[in-house]
Design a protein that fits this description.
heterodimer, A: Rossmann fold, six-stranded mixed beta sheet, B: about 130 residues, Beta-Lactamase, five-stranded antiparallel beta sheet, 4 helices, globular, binds guanosine-5'-triphosphate, binds magnesium ion
């Protein structure tokens, strides 16, 4: 049996908590607190610890999903949770004024996983902004990264599962590449 | 950044409550009051304390502890977390203020008796809730 520890990261309100509750087998562990920074985001609550959900796969494998707090004063949690993590789903909120600038901090913080290909990007609210999918890809390429980019609605289970499928594929591909005999 | 004006002024009795806590327990290094989402509200310290980082950590630790309690079927309203190391201890108490829950963090040296710390910090929480 294999266990995959995977993270969901990205800015406040991108939908990390929503994504995990959309796909977890059982009700996830939640650490929501009243959001007192309504200038930053209008939503009622924000994650201050982490979300935790699980998905059992066929064959006995299991996904352990950790949703990070988006606000950067919780960056210690990002470091703690990265320990032993195999990959990360980075969620973007395209309705924000500059969604790429928002992502920069998270890309930097999870750079190790990004560089070994263990990262996928999910763009939410694509239609509510003016940044195209191609802009994301080009922006990543500009940083020397080639990563799968999808548009998602984190409230839809199938969308989130697609992100995880892609991430697992990325992780497997990177592993096989690393294990392949050198010629 | 956090907007102080939007969140409203800090109630006048918060300062005296923290002052009294430090006066009552000389072995306390400091006390930090934060919103439950990790923003610093007020602090009183006798030594260098990284207040804003401690605020964020306090809210995380309390929320995670509450989540752990819920997982084992217990409800943790008004709960606390005690962390002890060889150099001292850190006590986190929920401050169930209506409308804006908060967390009180009290930092003390190794010689500080846990019972004293708990008693004084709980007393401080009572004053914060009911001036
Ligand atoms: N209308 C609309 N709402 C969306 C869409 N995608 C996400 N949301 C909503 O946006 C909110 C996202 O909130 P959370 O899941 O708490 O966000 P988070 O990333 O966990 O935020 P933090 O924990 O505060 O960092 C939820 O209320 C979702 O229902 C979308 O495409 N359209
Ligand atoms: Mg969240």
């Amino acid at each position: 049996m294999r266990e995959y520890k995977l993270l969901f990261a990205g800015p406040m309100g991108a939908g990390k908590t929503t994504a995990i509750s959309a796909i977890s087998d059982a009700a996830p562990v939640r650490t929501e607190a009243l959001n007192s920074d309504r200038a930053q985001h209008q939503k009622e609550t924000t994650t201050v610890g982490f979300d935790y959900g699980e998905i059992a796969l066929e064959g006995g494998d299991r996904l352990r999903l950790y949703g990070m707090p988006g606000q950067d004063r919780f960056d210690f949690m990002w470091r703690v949770a990265s320990e032993g993590a195999l990959g990360v789903v980075l969620l973007a909120d395209n309705s924000r004024p500059d969604p790429l600038a928002d992502l920069a901090l998270y890309l930097e913080s999870f750079r190790g996983m990004a560089e070994r290909g263990a990262m996928v990007i999910g763009i939410g609210r694509l239609g509510s902004g003016h940044t195209s999918v191609e802009s994301y890809t080009a922006w990543l390429a500009g940083q020397g990264l080639s990563l799968p980019v999808f548009t998602v609605d984190v409230r839809r289970r199938d969308d989130v599962l697609l992100l995880l499928d892609a991430l697992l594929y990325q992780i497997e591909a990177a592993r096989m590449l690393a294990e392949a005999p050198h010629v | 950044m956090f907007d102080e004006a939007a969140a409203g002024p800090t109630p006048a009795h918060f300062g005296p409550a923290l002052d009294k806590l430090l006066a009552t327990v000389p072995a306390l290094t400091g006390a930090v009051l934060s919103r439950s989402d990790g923003f610093e509200v007020l602090s009183r310290t006798r030594a260098e304390v990284p207040v804003s980082r401690l605020s964020a950590l306090s809210s995380s630790m309390v929320a995670l502890s509450q989540a752990a309690l819920r997982e084992v079927g217990m409800h943790g309203g008004g709960g606390s977390v005690l962390v002890e190391g060889q150099d001292g201890k850190l006590l986190l108490l929920e401050v169930p203020l209506r409308g804006q829950p908060m967390v009180l963090a009290a930092i003390g040296g190794a010689d500080l008796v846990t019972g004293t710390l708990l008693w004084a910090a709980r007393d401080c929480v009572r004053q914060l809730i009911q001036p």
